[in-house]
Amino acid sequence: MAGYGAQTGSPKPGDIPNAGEGVKSAASLCKDGNYYSELTTKDLEWTIAATASTETQTFYCINDEGNFGHVQLIHSNLGIWGAPASVQMTARFRGNGISKFFSVNLTNFTLSADKRSASTNLMSITMSPDGQKFTIQVTNPPDLIVSLTFERTTKGYKIGEGKSFFGDGYVSHKFWPACKVSGMIIVEGKAQDMTGEGTFVHAIQGMRPHLVASKWSYVDFRGKNTETNNKAKLSLIQFTTPEYYGSATVTQGSLVFDGQLFGVAVDNKTEAVTTEFDEETGYNPPTEVNYVWEGKAIEGGKPFKAVLNVKPKGLCQKVDLLAEIPWALRKIVSTFVAKPIIYQWYDEASVVITIGDVEHKLAGHVYHEATFVM
């Protein structure tokens, strides 16, 4: 298999606290292979650490028409005395002949008393009192208006305690892997009905972002078998640490089958079957890729495997990461990284899911990202 190409940075001595300790992934800290932990509402509280950190809440939706949208709130703290925190929103809609990406700096970030809801001058995320749904509002006229509800339809999860440790820092991911989505996104003055299914991810990088990984992958798939009426959702986050953290791969994902969280997976792969050199960026993004999940059922321990084959053709955007982060953080990151790029695609795809000895073939749509950091 071909690999994703990557450039390399040369961090200065002393900039990587306790890097020699390597990475202790959330999965490696689990006992007896019990990787699944059910989320509580407390798990979804904003932490807003005083030290260097980036915290995000991201809502991904594939609607019933096969269109895609996402909305993300980002809070970044440099951990440097006197340097203000920055708050940002990103959003995307792709479908019905429209492909638009938005990145907007925000002000007046405020948390609710319970730290489970957040508001800014242009965006709010509100958790319901019962902790079962989020309401997302964005008012950035005339470019973008969002009014969405994400209601959890199966268990939320984290792997073990939800944190992978990097010396003095950590990374955390917590998921609602399946949500019922209602509401709309208004782009270019046109209202897009987003009724469909979604995924919610609360992520924290408790360290400066350029120290976490040299490569990232994110996958969000929704599909069905029209003959058997089986439905599936697959989500995956995977990253490879820089050399000073041992070039370790940290991966976690889940399978939602026929509406229920069937299992979580920590033995996953992102296999680039073929790649092509991109002269614009200097990287080698995939032209065909297999995303592979391997895990066990939460109930009963039955093994499952999913292989999602994608030939990326629906390029949404190549996002220049340095152009999308605050100036002060950009100065720090650019010292180590030449040109970090996120490739974002939205494609048709097929998956083969094997549960025990039974094989299921499904077709659908996938939003997937490949991020090259160094």
UniProtKB/TrEMBL annotation:
Q: Which gene encodes it?
A: SVF1
Q: Which SUPFAM superfamilies match?
A: AttH-like
Q: What is the similarity comment for this entry?
A: Belongs to the SVF1 family.
List localization entries: Cytoplasm
Designated name of the protein: Cell survival pathways protein
Which UniProt key words apply to this protein? Answer: Cytoplasm
User: What residues form the membrane-spanning segments?
Assistant: none
Keyword Oxidoreductase assigned: no
Tell me where in this chain the Svf1-like N-terminal domain is found: 54-205
Source organism per UniProt: Linnemannia gamsii
